[in-house]
Amino acid sequence: MGYSCSYSEIEEESQSLTYLLRRYTGSKAKGHIIEHLNTMEGHICKNKKKLIAKDFPSRHQWFNTEPLSLRKELKDKLVVIDFWTYCCINCLHVLPDLEWLENKYSDEAGIAFVGCHSAKFSNEKESDKVQEAVRKYDVKHPVFNDKEMIFWEQLERNSWPSIAILSPDGVPILFLSGEGHRERINLFLEVAVDFYGDRLDRTPLDLYLEEEKEIEERESKENRLDSLTSEESAALKSNLRFPSKVICIANQALLPYDGNVMIFSDTGNNRVIIADLETNECLDVVGSGKIGFDNGEYENSSFHHPQGICHIFKDEQHYLYVCDSNNHAIRRINLNKKEVATVIGTGKQGNDREGNQNPDVQELSSPWDIVAINKDTLIIAMAGIHQIWALNLKNNKCFNFSGTGAEANLDSDDSLNKCAWSQPSGLSLGVLNEETTEIYVADSESSAIRAIDMKSCTSSRNVVGGDNNPYNLFAYGDKDGVGIRAKLQHPLGVHFVKNKNIVLVTDTYNHKIKIIDPLTDEIHSWLGNGEGGLQDGNLESSQFSEPSGCYSIWTKDISGNDKLTVLIADTNNHCIRTVDYEDGEVTTLELKNIPPARTSFNPSKTKAMEVKCEGGVCYPKFKNKM
């Protein structure tokens, strides 16, 4: 092959190798990798100066480390660069693969892993948001914020996620696009380490992890409570970490709690919290706080980044169904027996687009939200494969309800199988009148709210946001209006308010709560001034930071009048906010007696028991090497 010295030719060679690695395994696969490396080495020797990657721009902000250089700290290493954007579910799927590879290859391997955050949405360009994402998704390798896409363009990337592996000379020797490459990268690195041998610098990198900084920041706040705002103090004392979804249950027969309760996924702490809506007292903690996939009693069970929750009362038992997103499973919490079970999902990410397999073998992909249609049917936002699934509780079988699996904002008038979704992340069932029942969908990557007709179960429609071109996933903004003239930015939550016939939307990356009239498809901003922050107040002065879920409940005020209260999972502020619907006054809840993560919980005790520093908000302090 005659080279003109370009990255596009390396891309072509990489695609050829990827094809061969899909076809062959073992010694044949290794032989093809060696042949590829010899080809790349010959190419490097001839055109080395032109192919060496330019260094990271000096003004980029780094996380988990001090700024790194391809000419200094990363010189003479194999460098695995992950181009990602934290909105993208496919990018999030790559992170566990990288963690697995990081854990496999020791300090002495001469391999460094670096994340290049190249934002899709304007909100994601801000360094404080990237920092929160690094913490939220437990990223342990160095990450830099390529907010101006400089390094992205230098290496001629054009899609998320994307991997580039650089040789010890700093030349790209492999490009990969998409997710699901763990085994191919692993085999490539195994061969490359032997291939380059003594040329590799095996000195480990000094890391200062964001999880350490997070703990230090928390400790600093705890030592200066008097200087915090009332909102900051309430959030700190609540002991939450990136809560994502919230629901409420009104006082019901056989509910094992008195009065109304609120339930939310304490996602970053890998647990579900149940609290009294009137007193804000913690009633139960479901999950040990450790990352895991264990069933059983509350304190012995475990989750991995739980998201959406729904409630069903059936056979005189109250159940919660939970999207255990990083375990790719639906879990069931029996509130009466205080037990956790797995309904469906193996703990492994799947790529099945059809379903209907037995529940013990059915693999799911990042379920993000869930809603009950009746006592026997649940609808699931299967964000990882851009589909909507249904779960039949009579046989616990799960199947594709809507979506081709392609990522788009594509509706259909005659078949839900023809629809295409774009990372659906929020669901809510709304009964508008006798003729109209819809499921509202926060279609996050198309920045739209869409609806499924549940009367016919054959059609979907775009409500607000998005674009006339169903494949344009960049039609976002912050604009009130009707239909596609309105613009949102990566909404993650949606909630239908009965008796009001409105739909609440957490317009996540605009840091706002908005209201839709689903009969006119008009949306207007309700809460939040559009700037990320933590501030109570009225409609115009309140601030949120990437709110991800909301819910409403009708109660009685002290005069016996009906009162509508809205709860908001204010994710990056690590707290739950409450809103009086009539006056729009926002208050940060100070939740009481919620223990720090990884702590035993006894609701009869007012103080948390001994903290086990194994993760979540309670990390041991140490310096890491990579």
Number of beta strands = 34
The structure class reads: alpha+beta
Tell me the name of the CATH homologous superfamily of the largest domain: TolB, C-terminal domain
What name is given to the CATH topology of the largest domain?
Neuraminidase
State the helix count. 8
- The radius of gyration is 25 Å
Task: Give the strand order, joined by hyphens, for the main sheet.
Answer: 1-4-3-2-5-6
Average pLDDT, rounded to a whole number, is: 94
Which CATH architecture of the largest domain would you pick? 6 Propeller
Oligomeric state, counting identical vs distinct chains:
single chain
Helical percentage: 10-25%
Please identify the top-level CATH class of the largest domain: Mainly Beta
For the record, give the distance between the C-alpha atoms at the N and C termini, rounded to a whole number. Answer: 38 Å
Q: Largest sheet, described in full?
A: 6 strands, mixed
Query: Globular, elongated, flat, extended or rod-shaped: what is the shape?
Result: globular
Query: Beta-sheet strand percentage?
Result: 25-35%
Segments where pLDDT lies below 50 for 5+ residues? 598-625
Count of folded domains: 2
Pfam family, one: Thioredoxin_8
InterPro entries: 6-blade_b-propeller_TolB-like (IPR011042), NHL2_NHL_rpt_dom (IPR045302), Thioredoxin-like_fold (IPR012336), Thioredoxin-like_sf (IPR036249), Thioredoxin_domain (IPR013766)
Domain Thioredoxin: 47-194
Protein name: Thioredoxin domain-containing protein
